[in-house]
Amino acid sequence: MKKTTSKVKSLIAASILVFSAQHIVQAQETTMTLSLEEAQQYAVEHNYTLRNASLEVQKADYSRWQTLASMLPQVKAGFDYQNMCGYEMVMGGGGGLSSMFPDTIMIGGTPFPISIPGMDDAGSSAGTVIPMNPSGTFSITASVAVTGAQIVGVMLNDLAKKMIDLSYKQSEQTTRSQVRSVYVSILVMEDIVGLLDSSLANMLRMEETTQRSVDAGAAEQITVDKLHVQVASLRNSIQSNKRSLQLLYNSLILQLGADVNSSIRLTTSLDEVLNMNYLGQLAFAEFDITKNYNYQLLQQNEQVAKRNVTMAWMDFAPTLSAYYQYSSKTYFGKDQGFNMTPPNMIGASISLPLFSTGVRYAKVKAAQIDYQEALNSKQQAEDGLRVQFNQLHFDLVNAIETYQIQKDNLDVTRRVFDNTAEKYKYGHASNLEVTNASTDIITAQSNYIQAVMSVVSAQVALEDLLGR
User: Fold this and answer.
1) Rounded to two decimals, what is the model's pTM?
2) What confidence tier does 102 reach under pLDDT thresholds 50, 70, 90?
3) What CATH number does domain 32-73+149-314+357-466 carry, 3.30.1360.30, 3.60.15.10, 1.20.1600.10, 3.40.190.10?
């Protein structure tokens, strides 16, 4: 009895835990109601790939500023402390110093007498002690150096930033296209599941009617068995499609960058997505190659190659530099020492490369070859894009025509199945006719799915090519 009570308590506790866990999960789940446009915009704002692309744009801005800042004046401050640990410098001790130092020095044509402390007129001295007191020097230096390579480097950074901006826009376009494809796939799959549910309901009614006929002796059991197999096959197909549908929803959540515990409800219908008027206009749109992102990237790559040629020529250009320095030296002892540090100093220099055994010239020629290769690649890509446009145009037209045919075929096969099922109920159609009608509608549904996805795929490919 005690063991039974303990087991009951354990079951109750486990049930409470399971209920609490389910309640927490349900509380964490959020339902997102999204149209196609809202889903695409949400993905643009939250998709992790686009977040990284946005960070690359910011990094390009900082890289450009680094190059630009290297051409601006650089200012630095410093403090230098020296301590000779009580050392004293002794000058003199006997004659001979007068022979080492002149009596006068000439400055601007004017003579100035020189006298050394501790030295008599004869030039002899008993020795002069100069204390080496601790000292500190504070300095501020402003310098600037400009080269042709720096100027071209700023231009290259501008081009690099433009290329990263284009890459971001291309990534955004790709993300929108992927969201659209998954969104439409979900709509198609939900439509198909609905059609299969309707077919299953009809098959169940037929099975029930046939079973009553068998019970009354008006039909054979084998007929019911065949219908039972068809019902089981339909149920398996429905479950398979539902599992695929859940995978599509999970894929959409990943594309959006949403919380994995979120649930999504789509509000845009399949008919709204497959706008035949828009698709007809798109199929006959003109191709402006300058709006294609791949072509724009090739244009920027051409400019980069051209700037690299200029960069190579800059190795022949001079380098200009200038600086200004302020210094203040202070002695920390009672006696001041000799201060030979000028407080202000300016300087400028120019350097011109003269000879490098042909290295710079070879670098220029290599850059020119790279530029020519970039031009060739751009021309080849331009021809390829125009051919691709013609092919995608034909693909979209064919996909639209096939979609219209398969849509009509699905409607016809559904009506044929309903009619056959109705006839079968009154004994005017055989089991074989019902089986064939059931097979036909499943085949028509599969063809319809492929037709819809072909339209969406062709539309997305053409829009990407047109830069829309």
Assistant:
1) 0.65
2) low
3) 1.20.1600.10
